[in-house]
Amino acid sequence: MAELTALESLIEMGFPRGRAEKALALTGNQGIEAAMDWLMEHEDDPDVDEPLATPLGHVLGREPTSPEQGTGSAAGGGKPILSEEERQEQTKRMLELVAQKQREREEREEREALERERQRRKQGQELSAARQRLQEDEMRRAAEERRREKAEELAARQRVREKIERDKAERAKKYGGSVGSRPSPPTEPGPVPSSPSQEPPTKREYDQCRIQVRLPDGTSLTQTFRAREQLAAVRLYVELHRGEEPGGGQDPVQLLSGFPRRAFSEADMERPLQELGLVPSAVLIVAKKCPS
Asked: Which residues contact 242 (CB under 8 A, 6 or more apart)?
Protein backbone atom coordinates (compact mmCIF):
# COMPACT_ATOMS: atom_id res chain seq x y z
CA MET A 1 0.00 0.00 0.00
CA ALA A 2 1.48 3.36 -1.00
CA GLU A 3 1.87 6.01 1.67
CA LEU A 4 0.95 9.67 1.44
CA THR A 5 3.70 12.25 1.88
CA ALA A 6 3.88 14.13 5.17
CA LEU A 7 2.45 17.28 3.57
CA GLU A 8 -0.44 15.38 1.97
CA SER A 9 -1.21 13.58 5.23
CA LEU A 10 -1.40 16.85 7.15
CA ILE A 11 -3.69 18.35 4.52
CA GLU A 12 -5.88 15.21 4.62
CA MET A 13 -6.23 15.67 8.38
CA GLY A 14 -7.66 19.19 7.87
CA PHE A 15 -4.64 21.42 8.45
CA PRO A 16 -4.33 24.36 6.03
CA ARG A 17 -1.65 23.83 3.40
CA GLY A 18 0.30 26.90 4.44
CA ARG A 19 0.44 25.84 8.08
CA ALA A 20 1.39 22.28 7.15
CA GLU A 21 4.26 23.45 4.94
CA LYS A 22 5.46 25.82 7.65
CA ALA A 23 5.32 23.11 10.34
CA LEU A 24 7.33 20.66 8.22
CA ALA A 25 9.87 23.33 7.37
CA LEU A 26 10.42 24.49 10.94
CA THR A 27 10.71 20.93 12.31
CA GLY A 28 13.29 19.95 9.69
CA ASN A 29 10.95 17.47 7.97
CA GLN A 30 11.29 15.03 10.90
CA GLY A 31 7.90 13.46 10.34
CA ILE A 32 4.21 13.99 10.86
CA GLU A 33 4.34 13.75 14.67
CA ALA A 34 6.90 16.53 15.02
CA ALA A 35 4.92 18.70 12.60
CA MET A 36 1.66 18.05 14.48
CA ASP A 37 3.30 18.91 17.79
CA TRP A 38 4.45 22.22 16.33
CA LEU A 39 0.99 22.95 14.87
CA MET A 40 -0.80 22.31 18.18
CA GLU A 41 1.70 24.34 20.22
CA HIS A 42 1.56 27.33 17.84
CA GLU A 43 -2.07 27.23 16.72
CA ASP A 44 -2.79 30.46 18.65
CA ASP A 45 0.25 32.37 17.38
CA PRO A 46 -0.75 35.53 15.51
CA ASP A 47 1.77 34.83 12.72
CA VAL A 48 1.04 31.10 12.32
CA ASP A 49 -0.44 31.63 8.84
CA GLU A 50 2.36 33.86 7.57
CA PRO A 51 4.43 32.03 4.92
CA LEU A 52 8.13 31.39 5.30
CA ALA A 53 10.50 33.47 3.22
CA THR A 54 12.86 30.55 2.52
CA PRO A 55 12.25 27.98 -0.25
CA LEU A 56 10.57 24.79 0.92
CA GLY A 57 11.81 22.38 -1.80
CA HIS A 58 14.04 20.12 0.29
CA VAL A 59 12.13 20.63 3.54
CA LEU A 60 8.77 19.32 2.37
CA GLY A 61 10.10 15.94 1.27
CA ARG A 62 10.46 16.77 -2.44
CA GLU A 63 13.74 17.32 -4.23
CA PRO A 64 13.80 20.31 -6.57
CA THR A 65 13.37 18.83 -10.04
CA SER A 66 14.92 20.06 -13.23
CA PRO A 67 12.94 19.89 -16.48
CA GLU A 68 14.91 16.77 -17.47
CA GLN A 69 14.14 15.07 -14.16
CA GLY A 70 10.47 15.97 -14.46
CA THR A 71 10.34 14.47 -17.91
CA GLY A 72 12.05 11.30 -16.82
CA SER A 73 9.68 10.91 -13.93
CA ALA A 74 6.67 11.32 -16.13
CA ALA A 75 8.08 8.81 -18.58
CA GLY A 76 8.97 6.26 -15.95
CA GLY A 77 5.65 6.47 -14.20
CA GLY A 78 4.53 8.65 -11.24
CA LYS A 79 3.81 7.75 -7.64
CA PRO A 80 1.13 5.08 -7.16
CA ILE A 81 -2.24 6.58 -6.38
CA LEU A 82 -3.93 5.43 -3.16
CA SER A 83 -7.37 3.91 -3.33
CA GLU A 84 -10.19 5.60 -1.47
CA GLU A 85 -10.17 2.93 1.22
CA GLU A 86 -6.42 3.28 1.75
CA ARG A 87 -6.66 7.06 1.96
CA GLN A 88 -9.46 6.80 4.55
CA GLU A 89 -7.47 4.27 6.62
CA GLN A 90 -4.36 6.46 6.61
CA THR A 91 -6.40 9.56 7.46
CA LYS A 92 -8.01 7.67 10.35
CA ARG A 93 -4.60 6.79 11.79
CA MET A 94 -3.46 10.36 11.53
CA LEU A 95 -6.61 11.68 13.25
CA GLU A 96 -6.14 9.22 16.09
CA LEU A 97 -2.59 10.49 16.48
CA VAL A 98 -3.85 14.09 16.54
CA ALA A 99 -6.41 13.20 19.22
CA GLN A 100 -3.72 11.54 21.32
CA LYS A 101 -1.48 14.59 21.08
CA GLN A 102 -4.39 16.83 22.02
CA ARG A 103 -5.15 14.72 25.10
CA GLU A 104 -1.52 14.82 26.17
CA ARG A 105 -1.48 18.59 25.78
CA GLU A 106 -4.70 19.01 27.83
CA GLU A 107 -3.34 16.76 30.60
CA ARG A 108 -0.12 18.79 30.72
CA GLU A 109 -2.03 22.08 30.90
CA GLU A 110 -4.26 20.67 33.66
CA ARG A 111 -1.22 19.64 35.71
CA GLU A 112 0.32 23.08 35.26
CA ALA A 113 -2.94 24.76 36.31
CA LEU A 114 -3.12 22.60 39.44
CA GLU A 115 0.46 23.48 40.34
CA ARG A 116 -0.24 27.21 39.88
CA GLU A 117 -3.31 26.94 42.11
CA ARG A 118 -1.30 25.09 44.76
CA GLN A 119 1.36 27.81 44.76
CA ARG A 120 -1.31 30.53 44.97
CA ARG A 121 -2.95 28.87 47.98
CA LYS A 122 0.41 28.39 49.70
CA GLN A 123 1.28 32.07 49.26
CA GLY A 124 -2.18 33.06 50.55
CA GLN A 125 -1.74 30.91 53.67
CA GLU A 126 1.69 32.39 54.35
CA LEU A 127 0.33 35.94 53.99
CA SER A 128 -2.62 35.14 56.25
CA ALA A 129 -0.29 33.71 58.91
CA ALA A 130 1.90 36.83 58.74
CA ARG A 131 -1.15 39.08 59.15
CA GLN A 132 -2.35 37.04 62.13
CA ARG A 133 1.07 37.30 63.80
CA LEU A 134 1.05 41.05 63.22
CA GLN A 135 -2.42 41.40 64.76
CA GLU A 136 -1.33 39.39 67.80
CA ASP A 137 1.73 41.62 68.19
CA GLU A 138 -0.47 44.72 67.97
CA MET A 139 -2.84 43.40 70.66
CA ARG A 140 0.09 42.50 72.91
CA ARG A 141 1.68 45.93 72.46
CA ALA A 142 -1.65 47.65 73.20
CA ALA A 143 -2.06 45.63 76.43
CA GLU A 144 1.50 46.45 77.49
CA GLU A 145 0.90 50.13 76.75
CA ARG A 146 -2.24 50.17 78.92
CA ARG A 147 -0.41 48.45 81.80
CA ARG A 148 2.50 50.86 81.52
CA GLU A 149 0.25 53.93 81.50
CA LYS A 150 -1.66 52.64 84.53
CA ALA A 151 1.57 51.97 86.42
CA GLU A 152 2.89 55.45 85.59
CA GLU A 153 -0.37 57.03 86.75
CA LEU A 154 -0.26 55.16 90.06
CA ALA A 155 3.41 56.07 90.55
CA ALA A 156 2.66 59.75 89.86
CA ARG A 157 -0.16 59.77 92.41
CA GLN A 158 2.08 58.14 94.96
CA ARG A 159 4.80 60.75 94.38
CA VAL A 160 2.27 63.57 94.88
CA ARG A 161 1.02 62.04 98.13
CA GLU A 162 4.56 61.59 99.41
CA LYS A 163 5.39 65.20 98.50
CA ILE A 164 2.35 66.48 100.37
CA GLU A 165 3.27 64.44 103.45
CA ARG A 166 6.83 65.73 103.36
CA ASP A 167 5.61 69.34 103.11
CA LYS A 168 3.27 68.81 106.08
CA ALA A 169 6.06 67.28 108.14
CA GLU A 170 8.42 70.14 107.33
CA ARG A 171 5.87 72.80 108.28
CA ALA A 172 5.01 70.98 111.50
CA LYS A 173 8.68 70.72 112.43
CA LYS A 174 9.29 74.40 111.61
CA TYR A 175 6.35 75.89 113.51
CA GLY A 176 5.89 73.19 116.11
CA GLY A 177 2.85 71.13 116.85
CA SER A 178 0.58 69.56 114.34
CA VAL A 179 -0.39 71.21 111.15
CA GLY A 180 -4.05 71.41 112.09
CA SER A 181 -3.58 72.95 115.61
CA ARG A 182 -0.82 75.48 115.02
CA PRO A 183 -1.61 79.22 114.76
CA SER A 184 -1.30 81.21 111.61
CA PRO A 185 2.29 81.52 110.49
CA PRO A 186 4.03 84.87 111.13
CA THR A 187 3.85 87.54 108.49
CA GLU A 188 7.59 87.58 108.15
CA PRO A 189 8.61 86.00 104.93
CA GLY A 190 9.97 82.57 105.47
CA PRO A 191 11.74 80.14 103.24
CA VAL A 192 9.66 79.11 100.28
CA PRO A 193 9.20 75.34 100.16
CA SER A 194 10.51 73.67 97.09
CA SER A 195 7.97 72.80 94.43
CA PRO A 196 8.03 69.89 91.97
CA SER A 197 8.63 72.31 89.12
CA GLN A 198 11.92 73.43 90.71
CA GLU A 199 13.35 69.89 90.84
CA PRO A 200 15.93 69.19 88.14
CA PRO A 201 14.37 67.31 85.22
CA THR A 202 15.40 63.72 84.75
CA LYS A 203 16.01 62.17 81.38
CA ARG A 204 13.24 59.73 80.53
CA GLU A 205 13.91 56.39 78.91
CA TYR A 206 11.26 55.54 76.32
CA ASP A 207 10.41 51.93 75.57
CA GLN A 208 7.68 52.74 73.03
CA CYS A 209 7.85 54.49 69.67
CA ARG A 210 4.93 55.99 67.74
CA ILE A 211 5.54 55.86 63.96
CA GLN A 212 3.43 57.63 61.33
CA VAL A 213 3.98 56.42 57.73
CA ARG A 214 2.82 58.54 54.79
CA LEU A 215 1.90 56.54 51.68
CA PRO A 216 2.33 57.71 48.06
CA ASP A 217 -1.47 58.02 47.60
CA GLY A 218 -1.72 60.63 50.36
CA THR A 219 -3.02 58.38 53.14
CA SER A 220 -1.07 57.54 56.26
CA LEU A 221 -0.64 54.68 58.74
CA THR A 222 0.08 55.14 62.46
CA GLN A 223 1.32 52.39 64.79
CA THR A 224 3.17 52.02 68.07
CA PHE A 225 6.30 49.83 68.17
CA ARG A 226 8.77 48.89 70.86
CA ALA A 227 11.86 51.09 70.93
CA ARG A 228 14.14 48.09 70.50
CA GLU A 229 12.25 46.66 67.53
CA GLN A 230 14.04 46.67 64.19
CA LEU A 231 13.06 48.99 61.34
CA ALA A 232 12.16 45.84 59.36
CA ALA A 233 9.07 45.48 61.60
CA VAL A 234 7.83 48.89 60.39
CA ARG A 235 8.41 47.91 56.75
CA LEU A 236 6.49 44.63 57.21
CA TYR A 237 3.61 46.51 58.83
CA VAL A 238 3.42 48.94 55.89
CA GLU A 239 3.59 46.15 53.28
CA LEU A 240 0.68 44.33 54.95
CA HIS A 241 -1.53 47.42 55.35
CA ARG A 242 -0.84 49.59 52.30
CA GLY A 243 -3.36 47.70 50.11
CA GLU A 244 -3.08 46.04 46.70
CA GLU A 245 -1.53 48.07 43.88
CA PRO A 246 -2.94 47.98 40.31
CA GLY A 247 -1.14 45.37 38.21
CA GLY A 248 -0.71 42.72 40.87
CA GLY A 249 3.00 42.71 41.82
CA GLN A 250 4.01 44.36 45.12
CA ASP A 251 7.56 45.76 45.35
CA PRO A 252 9.43 46.07 48.68
CA VAL A 253 8.76 49.32 50.55
CA GLN A 254 11.48 52.02 50.51
CA LEU A 255 11.31 54.16 53.67
CA LEU A 256 12.52 57.75 53.97
CA SER A 257 12.73 60.09 56.94
CA GLY A 258 11.15 63.50 56.50
CA PHE A 259 13.62 65.72 58.36
CA PRO A 260 16.49 65.42 58.06
CA ARG A 261 16.03 63.78 54.66
CA ARG A 262 17.38 60.23 54.74
CA ALA A 263 16.76 57.01 52.78
CA PHE A 264 17.03 53.91 54.94
CA SER A 265 19.12 51.08 53.48
CA GLU A 266 18.77 47.32 53.88
CA ALA A 267 21.43 47.47 56.59
CA ASP A 268 19.27 49.99 58.51
CA MET A 269 16.40 47.46 58.50
CA GLU A 270 18.31 45.36 61.06
CA ARG A 271 18.91 48.31 63.43
CA PRO A 272 16.58 49.17 66.38
CA LEU A 273 14.28 52.19 66.12
CA GLN A 274 15.96 53.67 69.19
CA GLU A 275 19.37 53.53 67.52
CA LEU A 276 18.02 55.19 64.35
CA GLY A 277 16.74 58.19 66.35
CA LEU A 278 13.03 57.43 65.76
CA VAL A 279 12.07 57.35 69.48
CA PRO A 280 9.67 58.49 70.96
CA SER A 281 7.92 59.41 67.68
CA ALA A 282 8.75 59.88 64.02
CA VAL A 283 7.23 60.44 60.59
CA LEU A 284 8.38 58.20 57.72
CA ILE A 285 7.59 58.45 54.01
CA VAL A 286 7.13 55.60 51.52
CA ALA A 287 9.13 56.46 48.41
CA LYS A 288 7.22 56.47 45.12
CA LYS A 289 8.14 53.69 42.70
CA CYS A 290 10.14 55.00 39.77
CA PRO A 291 8.52 54.31 36.37
CA SER A 292 10.35 51.57 34.45
From this structure: 215, 221, 253, 286
